[in-house]
């Protein structure tokens, strides 16, 4: 059993192996020196442990975040795909164009996340079965008729987008060790925020309610109500890093602007609780 | 017309990025579509040679990135303060409401960075808005669109340069609001352009730009020179 030979072969598959292991040089040389004494059966375990340090420790957390994101993107992609295809739901003209744009982005996010997960050596989680009435599979939840009632469709869309922004934000710190994955997640995150702003603008125009704005004021749901309050709780923060934003440094920044100027994260568990009724 | 960015209540900042030729081209071509673009790009290519030895030094590490954000927020806040002092002719009630909200958000960002940085904050920068016609809707909204898209790309690109998770989260809290602004301004110019192919690529990804690329564009609106030579690059 020649461990150095194995590593050489692996390097041909993964030219960056040595860099990944650069901080484990002593571990490698240590292993090599005792290699001759190890029982053949023990070697895979020793190597497994070594590679877990090189790959697993940093990527397993990252893969978990990506699987979580993939589940949310499956939800959004299917929601818009069904919505765009529902006869008579979305009015012709700009609304149809906007929903198609968002649908295509969400499907692209699904593809991108799957590819990334595979490239990290993991298997993408399968797409769940969804119940967009939020009825836990009964089809009879609070959003029953979401694909035949346009205002309701936009209300659910707004909640998904605002929640998606908060969900990605809550996971950014978990990705800090991987520049590439973090940057990709940030690029998705801001696109979700663009979607959220537009869906809110559509709702504002549809309802002629000028309190609905592209940004989130306090923890206001924009008239959607208690069914989605969990997606907005905590958005009413008016201090950041211990600094009170209201009237900061004698400026005229009011409490509404102070809450609108910063979007807040949601924990993974909070997001899972929010989407649970939509997943059968 | 150069204006002090620090009108009674404001200043601004902004922040982080990563390089990508294709995205940069996409962004610059976007810029080329705005009313002020031609002159702007001209100005960028000519007066933008930030000698590493002079100008306002942003510093290094996370502090440098926060100062970078602060610089961009100063620019944005100053712009919207000017916009809302005298709205372009024909500004609708909705436009006035949104532009006023955005002004206050940018002031909040600017002052937040100022306080968070404390003694390490860069000084107040001096803006140069001479290329903008504040009476023209196309000029104002075109510039706003460019600023907002630039801000999003800046924060997206700077995220990976931050080492402290708390700072990363703060940047994340701001960048999505900038993206909301960008989408709204785009919709005011052309309903449905909130995330069109000039902003979002075929993979559904927004842009990310590295600080030097962002500062080249932002520098066209600043009298003050920015020295970003100590910023982290990876």
Describe this structure in words.
- The complex is a heterodimer of chains A (280) and B (234).
- By secondary structure, chain A is mainly alpha-helical.
- Chain A contains nine helices and two strands; from the N terminus they run H-H-H-H-H-H-H-E-E-H-H.
- Chain A has a two-stranded antiparallel ribbon.
- In chain A, helix 5 runs antiparallel to helix 7.
- The radius of gyration of chain A is 24 Å and the shape is globular.
- Chain A starts with a helix and ends in a 5-residue tail after the last helix.
- Chain B is mainly alpha-helical.
- Chain B has one domain (24-46, 61-121, 131-223): Ferritin, CATH 1.20.1260.
- Chain B has helices at 21-32, 37-47, 61-85, 93-117, 137-158, 165-189, 211-218, and strands at residues 2-4, 56-57, 126-128, 226-227.
- In chain B, helix 4 (93-117) packs antiparallel against helix 6.
- Chain B is globular and about 45 Å long.
- The N and C termini of chain B lie far apart (37 Å).
- Classes of the chains: A mainly alpha (280), B mainly alpha (234).
- At the A-B interface, helix 5, helix 6, helix 7 and helix 8 of A face helix 4, helix 5 and helix 6 of B.
- Chain A: InterPro entries: Ferritin-like_SF.
- Chain A: This is Ferritin-like domain-containing protein.
- Chain A: It comes from Chitinophaga caseinilytica.
